[in-house]
Write the structure tokens for this entry.
Amino acid sequence: MNRKICVVTGSRAEYGLLKRVMQKIKDDPELELQIIVTGSHLSTKYGNTFSEIEADGFDIDLKIEMLQNSDTAVDICKSMGLGIDRFAEALQQLLPDLIIVLGDRFEIFSLVSAALILCTPVAHLHGGEITEGAFDNSLRHAITKMSHLHFVAAEPYRRRVIQLGENPDKVFLVGGLGVENINKLTLLTKQEFETAIDFKLAEKNLLITYHPVTLEPESAINELTQLLSAIDELKDTNIIFTMPNSDTNNLLLREIINTYVDKHNNARAYDSLGHVGYLSAILHTDGVVGNSSSGLIEAPSFQKGTINIGNRQKGRIAASSVINCRADKKEILSALTTLYSDPFQKSLRNVHNPYAMDNTSDEIVRIIKSQSLCGILKKRFYNLPIENYGV
């Protein structure tokens, strides 16, 4: 009997990273792909991005509605509770042999919580990372402790998962899925990209992705205001915004961005560019500005600079192409000056992406096929050798 592998995705960015793994599972005669779609995929205001999954030729087994109509902290908690309830029913219906999840979203935490009680093994991608400015940081580590196979993007992350007590034999260094996508996907030409987004690029262009800073909710509006005030000083520069994800207080941030775009002919905002569209945006712009992980993980492979604002990504490994700054207008303008400076632009030619490895998806699928699931649910805490304590 084929091993049933259930891939769960709750956002556009997550699906973009998982797509190649999903295709390889689908194409493997020894595996059976199941797909559960949830979260912002099913929301009109986030672009109903489940349609992209179907357009790519995948059959969605179940759609799990869990998001509330509001984005307050209480409503996020209610969404998590509803998610556990509905994911439990979904897993009981599909009875997968293994679940694959990625990252640190609250939707995924709800799923894995249900899987823990239902004794369903979990493979977790992109564990061990640190993002000190978001509660995703704690969710990610909690998901690690409820998972059984671990696929990490860099060596320090492998060591951190082991530090959390996971068996080294179940922690696999495979690299970043986003980097692999850059090397494997056919991206849009400049003209194709302009046609796809119905927007002409200028002499200078920036891609801006700003998400809520969930552990500093009171600062998010001020940070975004400082960023918009800074880019307002730029000349001959077009701005492409991608909208924030469905975290706490995202609706107000979306409203602020839409108001800015309405008043500026050089700016456009998009609920979803799709994964190829988003990577093409990095390719055809001068840099990534904001607080998205894509600026640290994917942008270096394009030899493009990133201005990483504030604390949301604090602690994540970064290439030399990343310029960190506080959410202050003067500091952002200084970072933009650095971004466009000749010395910095020349330095980008030699940037090494710390998340780059070969055949990431192939390796993940090979491992999930070869690993025995017998007894995998009973985990023993792995203690580090005594000489490693305090390091």
In short: The mean pLDDT is 92. The radius of gyration is 21 Å.
